[in-house]
Amino acid sequence: MTTPFDRPLSGEEFVLLGELLAGIPEPYEPMEADHLDGYLTALVCLPKRPPVGEWMLRVFDVRSRPEAVLADRRAQQDLEDLVFRRFNSIERDLKAGRPIDPIVYEPDEDDEHETETIAALAPFAAGFWEVMDRWPGLREEDNEALASALIGILRHMPEELAGDLLPMQEQLNEESPFENYDDALGDLAESVARVAEITRGWRRAEKKNGAKGRKGPASGKGRGNGRTARRRKD
User: Fold this and answer.
1) What is the mean pLDDT of the chain?
2) Domain edges within the chain
3) I need a surface site. Which of 57, 120, 130, 209 has the fewest CB within 10 A?
4) Residue 219 zone, left/alpha/beta (φ > 0; ψ -120 to 50; rest)
5) What is the pLDDT of residues 80-92, one digit of tens each?
6) Where is this region: Disordered (predicted)?
7) How far apart (Å, rounded) are the C-alpha atoms in residues 21 and 6?
8) Phi, psi of 230 (to 5 degrees)
9) Among positive and negative, which fits the CA dihedral 164, 165, 170, 175?
10) What is the pTM of this model?
């Protein structure tokens, strides 16, 4: 039996998600949609999930202030519904062995160098790390398989947040650089699938030559910058 929360987001709803997040008033600091996707993906991967009321507050404000809501109650309810549906969609894909299809913002038009495009995966990694750092279950230091899978995600952490991970990032970028954005995104999706297999017991689908995931053109807005969301390509 399906519910309204089982429907994947449409292209227009991805846009709306970004707009509603950006509409939360100052001084509150909501997540942007690309960061949110990493955050929700990590929550899905947790062996034991925190209460919804606990993790949802951080979506709307970095300090989890309960006053961080939209002035329009209907719009706030729409925003919460979109977040829940996106969470369920990510969980459903991972459970079925399908690759994640993260929200990734394109770089500015005058900044199209491939390295910068790959760097667009950094907000996803930062959102994933936020869950790792706040709740137990993804930082089991005695689990080498899990630690290895997480490297494929954390190598994309933004420099200002990388801290002790920076030497690892530099080594990987020198010894195992990605050829292009699709190569980096495919590796990220595979790493997430490995994490979910270890922490949730969801088996990965057999990897096929040339498989790049699904196509879903959509766009979204970051807070005040109007960037366009780039989706996985076939």
Assistant:
1) 85
2) 10-202
3) 209
4) beta
5) 999 999 999 999 9
6) 203-234
7) 21
8) -100, 130
9) positive
10) 0.86
3-class DSSP state for residue 104?
strand
Q: Which long-range contacts (CB under 8 A, 24 or more apart) does 19-23 make?
A: 19/220, 19/221, 20/70, 20/75, 20/78, 20/79, 20/82, 21/59, 21/60, 21/79, 21/223, 22/221, 22/222, 22/223, 22/224, 23/70, 23/75
Minimal CA–CA distance to 102: which of 55, 42, 169, 49? 42
32, 167, 170, 36: CA torsion to nearest 10 = -10
Rounded (10°) CA dihedral 156, 16, 76, 134: -10
pLDDT for position 21: 98
Q: What is the DSSP letter of 65?
A: -
Q: Report the pLDDT value the prediction gives residue 176, as an integer from 0 to 100.
A: 87
| Structural tokens at position 99 | 């690759």
DSSP state of 215: -
* Per-residue tokens: 168: 């690892």
> Do the Cβ atoms of 51 and 63 come closer than 8 Å?
no
CATH number corresponding to 10-202: 1.20.120.740
Q: How far is CA 36 from CA 123, 148, 195, in A?
A: 8, 23, 18
Closest by Cα among 128, 126, 131, 145 to 199: 145
**Closest Cα to residue 79, out of 70, 67, 71?**
70
Choose from 40-44, 161-165, 174-178 the range with maximum mean pLDDT: 40-44
